[in-house]
Amino acid sequence: MDILILICLAVVIILLIKNVFEPALVFFGLLIFYFLLGLIDTTELLKSFVNQSIITLTLLIIIADVFARTQITTIINRLSGTKKRNIIGTGLVVGVLSGFLSNTLVVQMFIKLLDKKEFKAKLLLPISYIAILGGTATLIGTSTNLIANGFMVDMGLEPFSFFDFAYIGIPLVLAGLLYLTFFSRKILGHKEDEIREDDQNYFLEARILPGSSLAGKTILENGLRNLENVFLTEIIRHNNLISPVKPSTVLMENDILVFTGDIENVKELQKFDKLEIFEQQNDILNQNLVWAVLSHKSELVNRKIKDCDFRNKFNAAIVAIKREGEKLGGKIGEITLKTGDYLVLAVGDCFSQSREVKNNFYFLNDLKTVDKFDIKNSVFIFISFILVIILAASGVISLIKGLFVLLFLYMAAGYTSFKDMLKNTNLNLIILLGSALGISKVLVSNGASEIISDFILYISWNIGIYGTFILIYFLSIILTELTLNASAVAIAFPVAYLTATTLGVSPIPFIFAVTYGASASFLTKFGYQTNMLVSAAGNYKSGDFIRLGLPLSIIYSVIVLVLVPVLFEF
Fold first, then answer.
1. Distance (Å, rounded) from C-alpha 157 to C-alpha 106?
2. 3-state secondary structure of 348
3. pTM of the model
4. What range defines the domain where residue 264 resides?
5. 307 in a domain, yes or no?
6. Tens digits of per-residue pLDDT, 271-284?
7. Residue 91 domain-assigned?
8. What digits encode the pLDDT tens for the residues 177-231?
9. Maximal CA-CA distance, the chain
10. HSE (side-chain half, CA atoms, 13 Å) at 420
């Protein structure tokens, strides 16, 4: 049976790497399979989903939605007193905020704050890295720490205190700041020259409607050769492709015009008579344009645009699409969406009210459809949250009690409602984490983790306890780069725990190896959601992540591997 459990786990890892299905569905499917085999009973299965760490994380997500509607970015801008941005100043603010707020929320705030493209190119990738580092400094800074804490409670171990992670996390933040301050400008120096070129990669489609004055005239006569921001590259006529497009080409009704370029001023096309941007119907959608990135958790991944039913599902329509390292062509409806695609959406009034919206997209700009709190209420929300964190960290009140009180306070003040809570509850994340907890219980109780642990001990028998600790750390890094940080913790935690108990040493350093290894995602844009966000906003290529992230990953690893055994003895 242990071999079957491991085979199933291997299949799940392969599915996660290939991104065939949603991670939550994959983990939940494996848990249900184990449940049907009798490897986990009903009580233990249900307890996996009603876990204190999952409830805490859910409360933080709901409260983060309130933060998303504050004017914290405006407050930060006023406090800084300058429009000049630098890594050391911005990084300190990001590092502190990321210890207490969602990394994704913090990065989104600074994407909006850094309105100039030159700032985005120089600062956004360092900001993403510092947000990741800042999240490692507290219990709530990253979901990885909370998940590991939930596992510890299930194993009967003493849970982490709020600042147990600070002993390693603060040195990581400071070392990361120093490295990025002195080296990121040299490594990313080419970005300012590339950014205008990268803006030309958007793919946009428009249709000539019946009765348009464009029909019967040439490209040149219609003035489509001299557009400032976009370039007409192809014409699709009766499913036939016309490319290259000549100035003398005569346009016809129902022609589909394919443009590429910097579409921040896409409304330039709206001056043409009856030229409809792809699926944009003015009687249904507002003229609000939203820049978004397709999430790795999105149900739209690997589906054709024409099959996604954007209008009914999201009250939105795709205006343009860009994909790193690939020139798109043909019909936009035939394009198969991939994780990390950059989309420009024309959105309706109810766009931001849809629960599916936040599960499928990360946003790079403010939604005009979202009302912001004024400065007074924004300050109150921020201070009340910090007060709860201070009380929880000092032991006056437990974190989960403090968050429940804070949520009630926000509801009483009208900042959120039961409807908002339901909308912002991330069911995918709850299923993923609950399933991960249940799978870990199966791995431990049935001896499957012991097989992996024995294998690690076998290959590390001559390098001692410290060598085994290093192997566990790098196992976690490999798993998080190939899959997700939650997956890495779910798989590596029971292995680390059993390895430590077999060696007869404290499991705490090995658990830290798992948590810090699962957060060490600096080499790819898909490894962490903040990397994906800045990749779109700052036009970063895969090579930028490797050039800047590899030295940081080495520095990070050295600090973790040196300090953890010193501060937390085996």
1. 32
2. coil
3. 0.73
4. 198-363
5. yes
6. 788 887 755 444 43
7. no
8. 999 988 887 887 665 555 545 555 666 778 888 888 888 888 888 887 767 666 7
9. 83
10. 19
